[in-house]
Write a structure and sequence with these properties.
Helix content is 14%, strand content 40%. It has two helices and twelve strands. The strands form three sheets. It has a five-stranded antiparallel beta sheet. A five-stranded antiparallel beta sheet has the order 3-4-5-8-9, with no helix packed on it. β10 and β11 form a beta hairpin. About 7% of the residues have low confidence.
């Protein structure tokens, strides 16, 4: 009986230690610190994932801004493929296929604001007629979730070639606003 009690006690202590270790990092999650990811396919291949840090995304009417757009730009070093995506959408709302903003006036000059670097190449502009983002969940002070269907020119050779088929990105965006900024 003593042997059985020791085995049960050892198993209980082991399970408790495992549970404590599993929860030790709970306050460093995206839900608390902010951030998220884009999980996507590239011309049907993948999936690939690029993590988003809390400062990679600008939701509308967030902390110190009063703009009406949702914007993100991934960091090149977060992609194993060497992909980077920048995207802006005006007046985000759930349940609608929203066209991304392809160009906007920044510092008095029109520039591409939605673009993609494919495999460390130069920035490829969006093909706006075929592309959309569809937010299916917006909890304005905490969570943004959307489906991405984006088409970009093929610029992998260093120049954008209109006769090549477009690059198709299909995927999901999920971003949590930092708990301290809600």
């Amino acid at each position: 009986m003593n042997s059985t009690f020791r085995k049960i006690a050892a198993l209980t202590l082991g399970a408790l230690a495992f549970a404590l270790l599993a929860c030790s990092d709970i306050n460093s999650s995206w839900e608390v610190k902010g951030g998220g990811y884009i999980k996507y396919t590239y011309n049907g291949e993948g999936p690939y994932t690029i993590e988003l840090a809390k400062n990679d995304v600008e939701p509308p009417f967030y902390v110190n801004n009063s703009h009406h757009y949702f914007y993100f730009c991934t960091r090149l070093e977060e992609s194993k493929r060497g992909d980077q995506i920048s995207l802006m959408v005006n007046n985000p709302q759930t349940g609608k296929n929203l066209p991304p903003v392809d160009r906007a006036s920044l510092n008095g000059r029109y520039q591409y604001v939605t673009w993609m670097r494919e495999e460390f190449s130069s920035e490829a502009p969006l093909i706006p007629d075929s592309s959309y983002i569809r937010f299916d969940e917006i909890i304005g002070d905490s969570l943004w979730t959307a489906r991405l269907e984006l088409y970009f020119k093929d610029c992998r050779t260093g120049a954008c070639i209109d006769t090549l088929p477009p690059i198709h990105i299909s995927g999901r965006l999920r971003y949590w606003v930092p708990e301290s900024e809600r």
